[in-house]
Amino acid sequence: MTDRPPDTDRRFHGRRRGRRLRPGLERLLETALPGVSVDLPDGGAPVDPRTFFDREVRDVWLEIGFGAGEHLAWQAERHPDVGMIGAEPYLNGVARLLAAIERQGLGNIRILADDVRPLLDRLPDASLGRGFILFPDPWPKTRHHARRIVNPGVLDTLARTLGEGAELRLATDDQDYLVWMLRHMEAHPAFDWLAERADDWRVRPDDWPDTRYESKNRSGGPGPTFLRYVRVPR
Ligand SMILES: C[S@@+](CC[C@H](N)C(=O)[O-])C[C@H]1O[C@@H](n2cnc3c(N)ncnc32)[C@H](O)[C@@H]1O
Asked: Is residue 12 part of a domain?
């Protein structure tokens, strides 16, 4: 028996490694990752995400599944006073973000090189100012839909950890996942969709950069959809 909603699967099903990394990138995983890694202390006590940073931050934002980290690095560079946490179990992507951190001298990014959910469980209520889930794996087969990261369990945790007025941004170029996202977000009482007209989801907002995944998959289809939700008052 489980009290988890039926379309939630808590195991991580993606890849942790891809093609062999160049030695320089492989080395970054050993030399640079420990210095920016989010390490959760033993025990189940809540962990204030501000303590992950070695300077005062005015807010903390979380990107779930940052891929190669282009979006996170872009946000970090433009918002140096915000602490950015990125969760990504795919180590090839983690290495690429580490390279960007080094190249751009970004001091406000911390990385959980793993499944985001154990971290989400440990974050205090209203401790995040913004959340991003951009182009999550669509898991197109019906029998795999429970693997989708946008699911009632994750949305409940985001509703708890995002502060009032915080934005949750989602994007997809998969029409079936889009319908799924809209259905789950609509059903969730903690989130209101900010869109008022079609351009609000069809046109990329100025503060929302392209990612590698997005440009690689641009196929002449209907194109990506940009969804912005707000965490409503409690
Ligand atoms: C299709 S890729 C998109 C990457 C990136 N957002 C982009 O737009 O380029 C989805 C990413 O989500 C990551 N992911 C899947 N499940 C995750 C989880 N439970 N926690 C954190 N990341 C996850 C995968 O490893 C993968 O890199």
From this structure: no
